[in-house]
User: Which sequence fits this backbone?
């Protein structure tokens, strides 16, 4: 196993659970919200601010920064004069690259597929799901009224899409941006994991 796996996911599709099961089955590290804690420690910015800004963009961000032209200090750390939202995004950006350099792992969300777009050993998955199944999953996990579940899902996916579309030159959920798109409502959670394992094996054998 030598691949870095990124997983983008619709809210309620089981993307985190699928990613964790995949990482466990491959015996590699898994990063979702864990990434926020690591970025917080490395940047010196409190974790609560990372959670607040997690996969959520603001219009003041300069697009050129994500193209690699952002300023750093002489010690390699992010320039402290940058606005907070920019420092938060770039701290995650750098941590994703550092984690990928350490070796095989699974990274969920946070534009990881885009951050690692120039690496040959990256495999990108997108997990979607039917609204009925997503609503059922959300109602099982969150304290939310049944008639508000669909709106909650749509708003969360819109936020994720806006974040991804804003910080990259790609469109969130567009099939051509991923190696494989899986509808977990059709495959089930374990079936999705198995499909991903099979794909990883095939791709690594061909490379």
Assistant:
């Amino acid at each position: 196993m030598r691949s870095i796996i990124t997983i983008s996911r619709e809210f309620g599709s089981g993307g985190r659970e699928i990613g964790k099961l995949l990482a466990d089955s491959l015996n590699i590290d898994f990063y979702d919200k864990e990434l926020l804690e690591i970025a917080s420690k490395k940047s010196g910015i409190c974790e609560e601010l990372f959670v607040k800004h997690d996969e959520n963009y603001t219009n003041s961000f300069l697009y050129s920064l994500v193209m690699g032209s952002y300023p750093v200090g002489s010690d390699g750390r992010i320039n402290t004069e940058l606005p907070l939202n920019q420092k938060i995004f770039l701290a995650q950006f750098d941590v994703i690259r550092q984690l990928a350099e350490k070796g095989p792992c699974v990274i969920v969300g946070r534009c990881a597929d885009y951050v690692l777009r120039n690496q040959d050993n990256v495999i990108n998955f997108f997990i979607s799901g039917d609204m009925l199944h997503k609503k059922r999953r959300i109602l099982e996990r969150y304290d939310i009224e049944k008639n508000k579940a669909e709106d909650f899902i749509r708003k969360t996916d819109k936020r994720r899409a806006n974040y991804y579309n804003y910080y990259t030159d790609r469109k969130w959920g567009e099939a051509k941006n991923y190696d494989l798109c899986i509808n977990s409502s059709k495959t089930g959670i374990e079936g999705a994991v198995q499909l991903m394992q099979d794909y990883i094996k095939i791709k690594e054998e061909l490379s």
Remarks:
- The beta strands are 4-9, 29-31, 105-108, 122-128, 180-183.
- The chain is about 50% helix and 10% strand.
- Residues 59-71 have pLDDT under 50 and may be disordered.
- The chain has one domain: 4-206.
